[in-house]
Amino acid sequence: MEKDLVEYIVKSLVDDPSQVNVNVVEGEKSTILELRVASEDIGKVIGKHGRIAKAIRTVLQAATAKTGKHTVLEILD
């Protein structure tokens, strides 16, 4: 569910949605979502002063609050 949510949000932001890739790494108490986008789209995902990335992380935390697991979004180059 978290993966689909992040993919949906990011694909609507970038110019090349086919390059969006979300890898899920499950841990005992947390889940890490590794996000990769095309190099020219990285700025669109992070935003000025990281505002867009922070907003995506906030929505992700709200969506996963009931599960009790901590979810982390990592944006990789």
From TrEMBL:
Compartments reported by the entry: Cytoplasm
Name this protein carries in UniProt: RNA-binding protein KhpA
GO molecular function: RNA binding
InterPro entries: KH_dom-like_a/b, KH_sf_prok-type, KhpA
CDD domains (UniProt xref): KH-II_YlqC-like
Major location (coarse): cytoplasm
Keyword ATP-binding: no
Protein's job: A probable RNA chaperone. Forms a complex with KhpB which binds to cellular RNA and controls its expression. Plays a role in peptidoglycan (PG) homeostasis and cell length regulation.
Keyword rRNA-binding attributed: no
Gene Ontology biological-process entries: cell wall organization; peptidoglycan biosynthetic process; regulation of cell shape
Keywords per UniProt: Cell shape, Cell wall biogenesis/degradation, Chaperone, Cytoplasm, RNA-binding
Family indicated by similarity: Belongs to the KhpA RNA-binding protein family.
Pfam families on file: KH_KhpA-B
Gene3D superfamilies on file: 3.30.300.20
Gene: khpA
Family matches, as SUPFAM superfamilies: Prokaryotic type KH domain (KH-domain type II)
Oligomeric form and interacting partners: Forms a complex with KhpB.
Gene Ontology annotations for the cellular component aspect, listed alphabetically: cytoplasm
